[in-house]
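Table S5 (text form). Sequence records supplied for joint modeling of the two-component complex.
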Amino acid sequence: MTAEPNALAVIGVGNEYRGDDGVGVVAARRLRALLPECVSVLEESGEGAALMQAWQDAVWVVIIDAAHSGAPPGTVHRLDARLETAPAGFFHYSTHAFSVAEAIEMARALDRLPAQLIVYGIEGESFAAGFGLSPAVEKAVDAVVERVAGEVRAALPQHGR
Amino acid sequence: MKSRTIKVDNLARVEGEGALFVKLNGQQVTDVKLRIFEPPRFFEAFLRGRKFHEVPDITARICGICPIAYQMSSCHAIEDACGVKITGPIRDLRRLIYCGEWIESHALHVYLLHAPDFLGYEDSIRMAKDHPEEVKRGLRLKKAGNEIVRLLGGREIHPINVRVGGFYKVPEKKDFSALAEELRWARDAALETVRWVAAFDFPDFDRDYEFVALRHPDEYAINEGRIVSSKGLDIAVREYDLHFAEQHLSHSNALHSRLNEREAYFVGPQARYSLNFEKLSPIAKEAARAAGLGPVCRNPFQSIVVRSVELVYACDEALRLIERYEKPDKPAVNVEPRVSTGFGCTEAPRGICYHRYRLDDRGVILDAKIVPPTSQNLKTIEGDLWQFVESHLAVQKDKLQWQCEQAIRNYDPCISCATHALRLHIESE
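The corresponding C-alpha cell record, covering 590 residues in total, follows.
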C-alpha cells in the first residue's frame, strides 16, 4: 500500500447481519456509486485497529456508523473528531471493545489522526440479528448519503488527486 | 455475617458485551453467573436452505475478529460431507491465512486489551500515552497479520476469496516478497512481545483444568487434527457431539458447552500450548523457555505469555509456508455435493470452533450446528471466578473487581461470536 498524501476516504462501519448496525455499510455502498473513483470507499466491521489502518493513508476521512445514544431512531449525529472527543459506547453497537471511539482516541494519543476526520452516526432502532434497516433508519440513510456526498465534493478540489 | 457488594456495570475490553454476576455470603461465594445475551442461533437457522458454497461467506460474518476460523471450519465440514480432502499448496495457503488471523487477533488482545490490566491502566489509550512504542509495535504486528489475510482473503474484514475446495484466486510466489520481509520484522517483534509480557506480575492461580485442543501428528494443529484433552479424551472431529453437549441456562442466551463426563473444559492458546508444546517450532519453544514457561501452563493469568509465544509461532510458521510455496495449478479442487453430514473443527485464535452440516443431493444445507470457542470456555471462566474471588476476599474491593475482569480477559472471550451484550456485577447477600 503506497501512501497517497491527498487521499480522501469514506468508511462505512457495521455488520449488515445485525439490523440497523449495518447502516454505515449500506450508506458506503450507495456512496460508492455516487462518488468519483479517486475517493476510497471502504467497508469495515468496526474493529478499531483495522479502522486506524484503513484511514492511515488518507488525509480527509468520513466515517459512517450506527449510533445508540438514546436519541430517536434515524437521528443523525455529526462529530468533528479533531475538535471533539468521541464518546465511547456511542457508535457501533456491535460490541467491539476497541471500536470506533477508541480508535479515534488511540489515534489522537499516538498522533495518527487524519488531518480531517468527520464521523456521522445514525441512531439505530434494532440491533438484533437479521437483515434490513428500520424505516426511520432507512430514511436517514438517504439524508446522510446526500450530506456526505456534498462534503466530499466540497473537499475534492483541495484533496482530490 | 459481614456482607459486601461488588458491582461493575461494564465488562470492558472484551470482544463483545456481557455481564458477570458474583454473589457472596460472608467469606463464601454462593453463585457465579456469566450472563450472555446471544442472538439465539440466528446463523444456524439462517443457513438452512442455502447452498453449500455460500456457507463460508455467510459464516465469516459471525465475527469481525475471526472470520477465517468460521470460513475454515465450514469449508472443512462441507468438504468432509462431500468426501474431499485438501492437500498440497492449497492446504498450506489455508494454514497461512489462519496464521494471519492468529497474528491479528493475538496482537490485538495482548497489546490493546490485556496488557493494560497488568500495567495498571484503565485502557490501552491511557497506556499508549506512557508506552507509545509498545502500542505502535502491537499495531504494526496486528497489521502484519492483516496483510496475510488481505493477500489471501482479498480483504481483511470478511474475506471473500475463500471457497469450499480452496480459493477463488491464489497468489504468485513473487506476491509474497514484501509480506515476507514484514513477517521477519514481525517475528522479532513477537519475540520482543514475549519478553515484555513475561516481566509482568501474575497473580498466583492454578486449577485442575481439562485442556481441549486439536492435535496433529506432524504440526502444531490449526486446521486439522483429532480432538484431544489433558484428561485422556482422543476423538475424531465427527465424534464431537457424542462427547460434548450444549446447555441452555436461564441466565444466559449463549449455550454453555460441557464435556458429558466431566463438565467444564478449557480451549484456546493455553490448551493448545499445553497439549502440543512439542510441536511448536524451535524458536517458539525457546521463547517460551526463556519466558519461564514449562511445557504445560495452568495459570490462566499467564495466558498473555502463551498467546505471545503463539504469536512468535504464527509469524515463524507463516514464513516457513511462504518460503516453500509453489503456486498450485488450480486455486481450488472441485467439490460435488452428496447426501451426507460433514464435520469440521479448527483452532480459532480463542480455541476450537466446531461446525456440522447436513446436505441434500443438491448441496442444500438441511441442518447446521456451530459451536464458537467462547461458549466452550464459559463454564471454565465461571469456575475461575468462583475460586479467584473466594481466595482473594481480603483484596480491596476495587482491586478485586479489576482482577475479576482481568480473569475474564484471560480467555480473550469473543462474545460477539457467542453473544451480543455483556456487563459485570459482583454482589453479596
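Note: The first helix of chain B runs from residue 42 to 47.
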